[in-house]
Amino acid sequence: MDRRRRHRCRHGHRRVDPALRKRARLDVTSAESWREFLTEVIGAEGRLDVLVNNAGVMPLGSFTEETEATTDLILDVNVRGVINGMRAVLPGMVDARRGHIVNVASMAGMIPIPGMVTYNGSKFAALGLSLAARREYAGTGVTVTAVLPSAVRTELSSGATLGKGLPTVDPEDVARAVVDSVRRRPETVSVPGWLAPGWSAVQALVPSFIENRVRRLVDDRRALTGIDTDSRRAYIERIERHTNEHTTAATAPKRRRTKPEPIPLRLPSGRPRSSANASS
User: Name one GO molecular function term (predicted).
Assistant: First the structure.
């Protein structure tokens, strides 16, 4: 998690003031961890107005060869993490009648791609959760935006063949979209901005046999057949560690769950606006 307050530098870009940088540990798959995390952040900052759910994992490969433990990790991080985050902050935001949640999903939440079946499903779920929550809390002063990036040049896509009909963006592009969504509060925003409307038009207007032909031309099965495992090895090993840790935590004895009290998102004194960014 990074919560950073930024200031303008002389070139007009935003920089991070090291004295105002705050980090706190968070396991997005654990509701209890969310409570501890928010208690720490709000205790330090005084209030919370914006939550960015950005944690995610993306194992690639054959669906039938994916282990159950890997499936659990994908769903718990990419879906339950979003649910836990929204549940943790929504009561306090509704009480305050203000707040904004940004769920970083993916264009994989709209476009099905071979080689990432469970990941696709998790991002379809993240998009659906965002749209439904936005409607449910309309009129409360709280808004929800789903940000849908295309392939991003990060460790997440290491070893994958980028381009070839699929736009590739940088992390800074996604960050700008997130900041812009906080200002404008749209229902969804894709990165690049034309991609989601363009895909919706394809689905509405282009016959499936033409779509299938284009998919073959751009090799939409390359997540199954074209992964450079050497380039992706560091990410694969990190996912394996997370999977093992997550499996161990899931099998540990759990305390009896009761309905938690809402977390107040402001201290009585009130302080300048802050945001929390839940990242993997």
Answer: oxidoreductase activity
Domains of the chain are 22-252+265-278 (3.40.50.720)
The predicted-structure confidence for 116-167, as pLDDT tens digits, reads as follows 999 999 999 999 999 999 999 999 999 999 999 999 999 988 988 887 778 9
Over the stretch 235-266, which tens digit does the pLDDT of each residue have?
Answer: 989 999 989 988 888 777 765 555 666 677 76
Give the long-range contacts of residues 40-46, CB within 8 A, separation 24 or more: 41/1, 41/3, 41/274, 41/276, 42/263, 42/264, 42/265, 42/266, 42/267, 43/267, 45/3, 45/271, 45/274, 46/266, 46/267, 46/269, 46/270, 46/271, 46/272, 46/274
Q: Residue 253 to residues 75, 84, 195, 242, 250: CA-CA distances in angstroms?
A: 21, 20, 45, 19, 8
Catalytic residues: 119
What are 278's two structure tokens? 């839940």
Tokens of 24: 């706190």
> How many other C-beta atoms are found inside a 10 Å radius of the C-beta of residue 102?
25
Residue 72 exposed, middle or buried by CB count within 10 Å (0-12, 13-18, 19+): middle
Q: How far apart are CA 46 and CA 271, in angstroms?
A: 5
Other CB atoms within a 10 A radius of the CB of residue 23 amount to 11
The continuous run of DSSP H or E covering 39 comes out as helix 31-45
What integer pLDDT is reported at residue 52 of this predicted model? 97
| Among candidate residues 92, 106, 100, the one with its CA nearest the CA of residue 180 | 100
- Residue with tokens 């759990």, as numbered in its chain: 254
Confirm if 194 and 188 have CB atoms less than 8 A apart. no
Confidence of residue 11 (pLDDT cuts 50, 70, 90): very low
Please state the separation of Cα 192 from the chain's center in Å: 16
